[in-house]
Amino acid sequence: MKNQNLVMFESFLGKQYSDSPKAIFEEWRRKYPHDELVWSLDSRTSIELPAGVKTVRRLSFQWVYYMARARVWVSNSRLPNWIPKDENTIYLQTWHGTPLKKLALDMNTVHMPGTDTERYKASFTRESSKWDYLISPNSYSSNIFKRAFAFHRTMLEVGYPRNDLFYHQTRLREVTKRVKDKLELPNDKKIILYAPTWRDQQNEGRGQYRLTLPLDFENFVSRLGDDYVLLVRFHYLVSENLDLSNVSPHVLDVSHYPDIAELYTISDVLITDYSSVMFDFAHLKRPMLFYVYDLEEYRDDIRGFYMNFTEEAPGPLVRTEEELYQTLEELESIEAMYQGKMEQFHHRFCEFDDGHAAANVVEMLAKELRK
């Protein structure tokens, strides 16, 4: 029998307390404190949670029991295909980014270990057929999601709840100070966040991805260490731990920091490549550089792009480490040069966000529960 007030939350396969599920969870807990809200956590994950958050170990018998009784599931990634969903369960899929790279059914070839293109697409279709609601941050994403996910139910065009933070200035300042203090960052240096995507083809078996570093961190320190601190964050699918002890405190590994949105708040500059972080960082209208040393291979052979990235990117595309340093040294003039493109990019990809996405989603789902 369903528990009408039970809601299950999960972020990145239970590996994080982050992203839009976190924003929805916190808004729900604030607005409806008597509902039973449960966070799904991978047993191998050790993360810091706010006081009073009820958790359950992902894929355990207890997890299956909670999932069966829950009235609502909230996730930003895929759930196991074997978990059944009945007609009385509401599944809200928040997804986790505006797509630059081809997704799901739009991918020509799947390079992931443990599957092939046909099986991957069939598995994804089984998953997306369970989604009752899917959140979209902009019209561009809505059109892609419908096709790439074979999604024909209700699209919630409300923006990403995880980005609400950027539209509330008092909270933004509070988070910025807390994160800087937590990471013990100096106030007299600018902060660069380096957040590249993962490469589908760089794998060493199922669930294991090889990390290739295109930056010499010692070189970074010698060139820019007096002016910048570099925060390095790699995709959650990359399993290796970095050893940056020889370049600390000028270069810090923040790959396991629980919520990347909080890292955006302290970052003066973003360096990325093809990651969807560009679309979220754009809310802050701060400089972005795109270190795309393998552009043609990634675009043409591995994933393919939906947009004309080289024309629409709101910052310079650099191919070499030396070019990257030179661009950073001329950052002020570069920022002015790309101001127009940044405005266009913000208008197109930050379309639905207004700071109230989490509140809108919670109100809609809470009404469903109380029918």
Describe this protein's structure.
The structure is a single chain. With about 375 residues, the protein is α/β, with parallel strands linked by helices. About 35% of the residues lie in helices and about 15% in strands. The strands form two sheets. Strands 3-2-1-4-5-6-7 form a seven-stranded parallel beta sheet, with helices on both faces. The chain has a six-stranded parallel beta sheet with strand order 10-9-8-11-12-13. Strand 1, helix 1 and strand 2 form a beta-alpha-beta unit. Helix 1 packs across helix 14. The longest helix has 15 residues. The radius of gyration is 21 Å and the shape is globular. About 0% of the residues have low confidence.
